Amino acid sequence: MSPDRLSQVQRRAVAELLRVAPVADDLARRFQAAGHRLALVGGSVRDALLGRLGNDLDFTTDARPEQVLALVRPWADAVWEVGIAFGTIGCRKTGPTGFDYQIEITTYRSEAYDRTSRKPEVTYGESIEDDLVRRDFTVNAMAVDLPGTSFVDPYGGLEDLADRVLRTPGTPEASFGDDPLRMMRAARFAAQLDFDVAPEVVAAMTAMADRIDIVSAERVRDELNKLVCSAYPRKGLLLLVETGLAARVLPELPTLRLELDEHHRHKDVYEHTLTVLEQAMDLEAPGEPDLVLRLAALLHDIGKPRTRRFEDDGRVSFHHHEVVGAHMTKKRMKALKYPKDVTDDVTRLVELHLRFHGYGTGEWTDSAVRRYVRDAGPLLDRLHKLTRSDCTTRNRRKAGALARAYDSLEERIAKLQEQEELDSIRPDLDGNQIMEILGVPPGPLVGKAYKHMLEMRLENGPMDRDTAIGELKKWWSAQEG
């Protein structure tokens, strides 16, 4: 590494480490006094060198977890032991400037999987070098020995950081054999840091992709979430597809690479999907990744491969791909153990993403606007963003027309919301009023009447009481007949 590059990295690191030094050194002196070694490690050192160290600090030590507990309990403001089975103790400490630091202290360790287990076997190491060699990538295998700032970098992480490349401390085959989830992490870090992955690492990921099958769905899901919510998700997703990992954890994504017919009658769905994801990101609030929106963008067209038809006139159709895609989305997200609310929201957005195009050229009736808002419910803002993002045509005239049509729709929604409180559409008569007017007890008929009155409200807008009663009695007469 050139002196200029090294100096730049060092200056950033020194500035970051000085910021956290009061807390880090204070903790280290407690360990030193007890005859133990403590070092800032892994992502904390990497982020310090990149000038982006936050208030989450990772440490490694030769002290065993019970010894760590004894040392931090009198010192920390709060302590938790949820990771103690893996050698990790967590705590919170408020620094002299008032910042809260979230701290994790892990005993030197190594971990490995066997072919039949989804959980790592944890064993403790005897030296910091033992601990660093088990780390996933060289840029995460650096440490700063405390107190003081003695730099520990036995595997060339500093140079790889400057070159923006991901390598493993040992052979990638050994690293991924120990923990197959590291293959997902390679894609995640590429997406988060905008780093390249070394060719030998890519080769090992490709050769060992099937090893990801022994990792629990929850751990795979968490890495996928971090990748999708990163700054450069395309980079990580491309790597997952290239290596065959996506075929095992998210097979719907590589399946989007439909072969183009010779006349190019339909667009590249895979490339379109990645572009939609990036365009959806552009519509997010700055610094606030929206996992639901991004997953919906990534999955919105996964029904196309199953619904593709070549029509007699030469066109290619994907009829009802949004309905098929919604079913596929729910199934995949359940397999990855997503929470029910996230699964439901993403599935609903996939199902609704074509609704805008079902209303033609923008000549929306008030009834159509009400139904659009009712069906979207609390997802309306995300649906706006997804629908706008789904336009990837290079035809400026067509893109402009779609944008204007959606501008018009949003204006109509805003106007009707102001007039009619669309966010909480209810029939003009509630269930109790329906029973009183019709003289019927609670039961299925009341539900049918309520549904009819809701349809009337959506179709016609608000009605005064007399008009609403008249419509209800008219419906009731038809039922009796």
Automatic annotation (TrEMBL):
<keyword id="KW-0819">tRNA processing</keyword>
<dbReference type="GO" id="GO:0008033">
    <property type="term" value="P:tRNA processing"/>
</dbReference>
<protein>
    <submittedName>
        <fullName>CCA tRNA nucleotidyltransferase</fullName>
        <ecNumber>2.7.7.72</ecNumber>
    </submittedName>
</protein>
<keyword id="KW-0479">Metal-binding</keyword>
<dbReference type="InterPro" id="IPR014065">
    <property type="entry name" value="tRNA_adenylyltransferase"/>
</dbReference>
<dbReference type="GO" id="GO:0042245">
    <property type="term" value="P:RNA repair"/>
</dbReference>
<feature type="coiled-coil region">
    <location>
        <begin position="399"/>
        <end position="426"/>
    </location>
</feature>
<dbReference type="InterPro" id="IPR006675">
    <property type="entry name" value="HDIG_dom"/>
</dbReference>
<dbReference type="InterPro" id="IPR032828">
    <property type="entry name" value="PolyA_RNA-bd"/>
</dbReference>
<keyword id="KW-0548">Nucleotidyltransferase</keyword>
<dbReference type="GO" id="GO:0005524">
    <property type="term" value="F:ATP binding"/>
</dbReference>
<keyword id="KW-0692">RNA repair</keyword>
<dbReference type="GO" id="GO:0004810">
    <property type="term" value="F:CCA tRNA nucleotidyltransferase activity"/>
</dbReference>
<dbReference type="Pfam" id="PF01966">
    <property type="entry name" value="HD"/>
</dbReference>
<dbReference type="GO" id="GO:0003723">
    <property type="term" value="F:RNA binding"/>
</dbReference>
<feature type="domain" description="HD">
    <location>
        <begin position="269"/>
        <end position="409"/>
    </location>
</feature>
<dbReference type="Pfam" id="PF01743">
    <property type="entry name" value="PolyA_pol"/>
</dbReference>
<dbReference type="InterPro" id="IPR006674">
    <property type="entry name" value="HD_domain"/>
</dbReference>
<keyword id="KW-0694">RNA-binding</keyword>
<keyword id="KW-0547">Nucleotide-binding</keyword>
<dbReference type="Pfam" id="PF12627">
    <property type="entry name" value="PolyA_pol_RNAbd"/>
</dbReference>
<dbReference type="InterPro" id="IPR043519">
    <property type="entry name" value="NT_sf"/>
</dbReference>
<keyword id="KW-0175">Coiled coil</keyword>
<dbReference type="GO" id="GO:0046872">
    <property type="term" value="F:metal ion binding"/>
</dbReference>
<dbReference type="InterPro" id="IPR003607">
    <property type="entry name" value="HD/PDEase_dom"/>
</dbReference>
<dbReference type="InterPro" id="IPR002646">
    <property type="entry name" value="PolA_pol_head_dom"/>
</dbReference>
<keyword id="KW-0808">Transferase</keyword>
<dbReference type="InterPro" id="IPR050124">
    <property type="entry name" value="tRNA_CCA-adding_enzyme"/>
</dbReference>
<keyword id="KW-0460">Magnesium</keyword>
<keyword id="KW-0067">ATP-binding</keyword>
